[in-house]
Request: fold
Amino acid sequence: MPLSADCPDGRSQLLMFPRRELLQKLASAALLFFVPRSQSALGSPKKYPAPEFSIGNKVADHWIDEVEIEQIEYGNVCGTCWHPNKQEWAYSIEWTSGGMPDFCYPCFDERLTVGGDLRFVSHD
Reply:
């Protein structure tokens, strides 16, 4: 049987596609089953109370420095976690401004801040 012009090597054009494209589509479909679903802070386990702050909230922290002067810093919540020893929520904050010189900000010091020390800052 002769090969037609629209069927090179005797194969149908409808069944021909690059292997790379097939592997990409299969991998994309498979990833849907392995990628964890994102959960908001409201989706936290029921045994914990709801956190006071959510990722993205603007907050302020008031504290007394070593020479007994009240300081205030402002920042954005960028992480939340349950503090098992204190039985309360703690937050990762990226500090954006405050009583320190401007070159000190933004600052992410990787120290958890307990929620009771923070206050909401009204949105601009």
